[in-house]
User: Fold Probable cobalt transporter subunit (CbtB) from Natronobacterium texcoconense.
Amino acid sequence: MSTTTANETVHDRIAVAKETMTLGQMAAVTAFAAAIAFALIFVQEPLVHDSMHNFRHAAGITCH
Ligand SMILES: [Zn+2]
Assistant:
């Protein structure tokens, strides 16, 4: 019984948080998420390039 009450309380808090989030906060969160996504792609791209580069050499293809 107490567990159900706790879950409902958390659910209500999340619902209130969504309703009280302003348009500016939503824009900030969206920009933050986009920045993180861009950073992850920017960091991972060289790693992907290197792995493909090593794969080409392993396959006997010279590229330089
Ligand atoms: Zn190479």
Notes: The mean pLDDT is 83. Helices lie at 2-20, 23-58. Residues 53, 57, 63-64 surround zinc ion (CB under 6 Å). The CA atoms of residues 3 and 9 lie 10 Å apart.
